Amino acid sequence: NGKTTLTSLLAHIWDKMHKPFVSAGNIGLSLSEAVACGIDPRATVFLETSSFQAERLSNLKPRSVLWTNFSDDHLDHHSSMEDYFLAKANLLNQCSGCSWVGESVAQGFKKLRLKMPEACNVISRFEGKGLPLPENHFLSTYPQRENLALAHAFCQSESIGERIFFSLIKDYRGYDHRLKKIAELEGVSFWNDSKATNFAATLSACDSMEGDIFWIGGGRSKGGNLNSFVESIVKKIRKAFLFGEVGHRMKGLFDERSFPNEICQSVEEAVGKAYGSEVAPSTILFSPGFASFDTHCNYAERGKNFMEVVFDLKNKLHGTTQECFT
To answer: 3-state DSSP helix/strand/coil percent for the chain, to nearest 5?
Structure first.
């Protein structure tokens, strides 16, 4: 989690400093296309890399690697958690310089009894209080404080001081569909986190919220441990509204725990049921936790669907002009 945010954040900083850069990989151009188009020899290439790509890398020798965190994901592709971890760790083995990793990555090395490369620095998530950022800044949320800490550590190694670093990121807005408040109706806030396609992202989103959370989740399974996920999320939310291919399997696990939940046939039905509940929530959190391909082309289309539903609800209740988004 956090790869896109971290890549775009560093690109934002380089852009503000008028330093040459290229964003490539899962964000922007593919690396091969970027090379074919021509790259300024002075440019820094920020390459967002997935485990699918990392596991077979042999020729790429990155100068630096930033590995945000490690959690249960992509087990529909990798044979085990160890196989998944080793795929990502291959990037560190290929690195020619220093690397920075989140605490969960260090824990992964310890759990698997693997030796972490010597030039690897473990970075702790920033605490929420005292950050020199505007109120309610995107990067001040719980999930993003880990990305912020990694970006800060890397920038320090590039001789970018703390004061300059925080001044440059004040206007960073983050990517669409990544934990953003899109509306508030009658004291209920609506959050779009459609980019959350795994359990860790959804649990982190829950940790960022306050009050009673009505969670809308579901989609296509990526092979993770559903039982463990449900055991964790019931401690963070008030009620679950489930949709997609995993909906009925999830309902069974919530029912085993006598936890309030409802099956919904669409995102629209889930939003309507959540907002129309007898006990009003503080927050309606759309953070699916699963892949989108059972009902939508991608997470962006899924997020736009949620936004359209919320804005339509707002229009019906208040007769306001339709919100616009891209």
So the answer is: 40, 15, 45
